[in-house]
Design a protein that fits this description.
This protein has 134 residues and is mainly β. It is built from no helices and nine strands. The chain has strands at residues 2-5, 8-12, 33-36, 67-72, 78-83, 89-95, 102-108, 113-118, 128-132.
């Protein structure tokens, strides 16, 4: 898998790589971030996939990036916490496969922190969340 910023390769990974944090400087303004995955036809082992998680980008009107945290509750429900800009609208989306996303809540917070409990979270063995600022 390869990561490119504005067409320039900045990272390349091959083989089985565990979860690792990578940081790249993204200049102010319009940018193109691209992840490319190419299957090696000579080998077929493991999952033959690349996974990307927790991409943090600065919001267009602030240098403060929104952060999303998932807090599992004892009853099986999941609390989603979004920390971002006060007065900004955030749409929380859920997915069971990281391909199909469904909007499940929309919130605005005066303080910049939103806490929302997923009442359906216990119904899914695996559920992924993301927050977008439309």
């Amino acid at each position: 898998m390869e990561f490119r910023l504005n067409g320039v390769p900045l990272g390349r990974w091959s083989g089985e790589v565990g979860w690792v944090t990578f940081l790249f400087h993204v200049p102010q303004g319009l940018n193109t971030l691209e992840w490319r995955y190419a299957k090696d036809a000579n080998f077929s082992a493991a999952v033959d996939a690349g996974f990307i998680d927790n991409v943090y980008l600065p919001l267009p009107d602030s240098s403060i990036a929104a952060r999303l945290s998932i807090l599992p509750l004892p009853d099986g429900e999941k609390r989603v916490q979004v920390q971002g800009l006060s007065g900004r609208r955030y749409v929380i989306q859920g997915s069971t496969n990281l391909a199909g996303w469904v909007s499940i809540a929309t919130n605005v917070s005066d303080s910049g922190t939103i806490q929302w409990t997923d009442p359906q979270g216990a119904n899914y063995p695996i559920r992924f969340y993301r927050a977008i600022a439309p």
